[in-house]
Amino acid sequence: MTQTAFEALTVESLPGRLGGIAALVERLGEDSSAWKVREVGDGNLNLVFIVEGSKGAAVVKQALPYVRLVGDSWPLPLKRSFFEYHALKRQEARAPGTVPAIYHFDEAQALIVMEFLSPHIILRKELIAGRELPRIAEDLGLFTARTLFRGSDFHMATRDRKADLALFADNVELCGITEDLVFTDPYFEAKLNRHTSPQLDPLVAELRADRDLKVEAQRLKHLFASKAETLLHGDLHTGSIMVTDEETRVIDPEFAFYGPIAFDVGMLLANFWMAYFSQRGHEENGSRDSMRAYLLRTTAEIWSVFRGEFSRLWRTERTGMLYHRSLFEDRGDALGAEQALDRLLHEIWEDTLGFAGVEIHRRILGLAHNADFETIEDADLRASCEAPALKFGRHLAVNCRQIHSIEEVNNLAALIEKESRP
Amino acid sequence: MTQTAFEALTVESLPGRLGGIAALVERLGEDSSAWKVREVGDGNLNLVFIVEGSKGAAVVKQALPYVRLVGDSWPLPLKRSFFEYHALKRQEARAPGTVPAIYHFDEAQALIVMEFLSPHIILRKELIAGRELPRIAEDLGLFTARTLFRGSDFHMATRDRKADLALFADNVELCGITEDLVFTDPYFEAKLNRHTSPQLDPLVAELRADRDLKVEAQRLKHLFASKAETLLHGDLHTGSIMVTDEETRVIDPEFAFYGPIAFDVGMLLANFWMAYFSQRGHEENGSRDSMRAYLLRTTAEIWSVFRGEFSRLWRTERTGMLYHRSLFEDRGDALGAEQALDRLLHEIWEDTLGFAGVEIHRRILGLAHNADFETIEDADLRASCEAPALKFGRHLAVNCRQIHSIEEVNNLAALIEKESRP
């Protein structure tokens, strides 16, 4: 492909334009005119094509120079594709087998050709459908622990981490989306906001007048913007995860940048708690009691696996410059390293709850809602699911330093959910 | 100057090599053969020349490709000169009149030609001599508040801050010096360490076995390496400050990078507390009671001025993306912004004490000692000044979250100092 000026692919132009890429031909078959192409992008930002040939299939993801959800009135750099590519490379190295294999990357065309995951389905869709996936807690606990630990100064050579930090510091616009849409807009009457109205109006007004909540949300934004601790996925919700009963893959890391460990973990857990609160809106075919129990169990297991794997890596792969063994194990003070680990995990825990709280708020009050709630057509029913989620999110954000365990959080979720029933 | 391959200047070669620089000729006079050159670098890293001509004088500071204190066995990139130049530019913009004016910068030769400060004297020398400078508390409180506030996301456009963060992320080796020499080496038997021995041996062994202290020092290192909050000076001790009774200038920001606000403030205060503990070693010409009182008063005033100016800027120049007015003042909730300010200053306060504690330790236990103690020739006397300083540093680092005011800290310093007298 010699074309260098960016041009968006279409279903029609794709075979002609990508038919010369060896890595693609190898997987799909040589006769590109016989390739079947469909565009399946259902996200907010990009084009996504599934291309099938005589030998196999692949996914072609191409960034557009604007936000797809909004249109060309909201420009967005093509370079996000570059960040996604580099993040996928690092995630594969740090947690092998957890992301799609990459076949080809074209920076100028902002496109990544990657593995077609089949029969994988977006996790969020499965949770809305009430399916209890058996592997996700384990897989996601390991994915977060491994990518977040191994991308930090606990493990990496700090020279490499600093170079990577500088590389990803240019992902300004996508960080900006998070900074605005997650941490700021939901807490005042920003133009792009929307919520289920008028049902939620009184609660929304209450939250936007809640000083403690606003200050905490801004503390979390400060943390997000300044705590360059590790390479984050940056958008780790249940719509960025593809699953089968046997396998879990994490996709779409274009928001990747160096931020706080707790951000990925908090966003991930928040999406399970939202799924939990949304279940009542999906009971047309029967009770979701079992699904609700599964979702809370899943948050507890994710946290437990994350904590366990992070601790294991702390003890076995702490090769970076922080908390160096020369100060602890090498002087016969293994317990010093354990003390530091406890403190660190405690801090991650507190901030995880805080980030989870604001993630819940922005999905109900901000621009980018999620399908868990959005697919509940009856606005009264939807609001009756969203309201307790908002209250739960507020409690997490404001009280994150006083909550001791994930069981306590889940008990609170169950209490709020039960009390909100008509 | 057309020479591009780096070559260290000498007293002899300087006029010939720099005689063609217009900015220099303009200040010194055209006949460069009549320039008087002397090398005055007494720091650990660089060459510093004072050049005087018929019209005036200038300073030429040139980096060497190694650590001057150690020699070419410890290479150090010339690029630190680039970071110093860019830091000086930003400090001048953020706190006008507080740094030397720059006349010329040559990146390839790693040299900065700048204002010759006269009759300014290094602050540390003045404090050792027992001189009570009238302006430093006010000037340094303002310098820290202005440079640290205005280099952060409280004030800057975040795109600019992120670009700057990436620029300074390459200052790896100088950050590495701090990471190793301040936060790690003092707490174990590192090769480069030295201390007044055998007098301090039992106390040093006690500190290196102190688990809480080691864990806290590593927490602070983690903070230093990951909290990319603002552009720091990075080496803000009393040897980086030049004073007269009328004026205070801050020099040598080659350690500049994006780090936590509290680091600069903590290192600065620590150096006054060390001056305090060292006074007993300089009483050959009379009591230093007045000087001791002055030094404690100065720390209290620096903190008070810093806090006051930071608060003023918070209220008047909070134009960045963090704690945006749209969430607070614009909604009639000015008190929300005050609540956030209190919490932020409280966090800065805690970490300031922590950083101060480790800075004191490294100056007595690590590689780079300071003249306050080093100029006390009698080892017993020196150790009797250093020991209480070490204990004070340990108390600050480990108890930084439980100490409420700078008066409390100064009372503690006085108590420890008094109790340590023979």
Overview of the molecule:
2 copies of one chain form a homodimer. With 422 residues, chain A is of the alpha+beta class. Helix content of chain A is 50%, strand content 12%. The first copy, chain A, contains 15 helices and 12 strands. Chain A has helices at 14-18, 22-28, 80-94, 123-128, 136-150, 158-168, 172-181, 201-208, 211-226, 261-278, 289-316, 334-365, 371-374, 379-399, 406-419; strands at residues 36-39, 46-52, 57-63, 66-67, 71-75, 102-106, 111-115, 121-122, 230-232, 241-243, 248-250, 257-259. In chain A, helix 5 (136-150) runs parallel beside helix 11 (289-316), helix 10 runs antiparallel to helix 11 (289-316) and helix 14 packs antiparallel against helix 15. Chain A is globular, with a radius of gyration of 22 Å. The mean pLDDT of chain A is 96. At the A-B interface, helix 6, helix 7, helix 9 and helix 12 of A face helix 6, helix 7, helix 9 and helix 12 of B.
Task: Draw up the topology in text.
The structure is a homodimer of 422-residue chains.
Chain A: H1 14-18, H2 22-28, E1 36-39, E2 46-52, E3 57-63, E4 66-67, E5 71-75, H3 80-94, E6 102-106, E7 111-115, E8 121-122, H4 123-128, H5 136-150, H6 158-168, H7 172-181, H8 201-208, H9 211-226, E9 230-232, E10 241-243, E11 248-250, E12 257-259, H10 261-278, H11 289-316, H12 334-365, H13 371-374, H14 379-399, H15 406-419
Antiparallel strand pairs in A: 1-2, 2-3, 3-7, 4-5, 6-7, 8-10, 9-12, 10-11
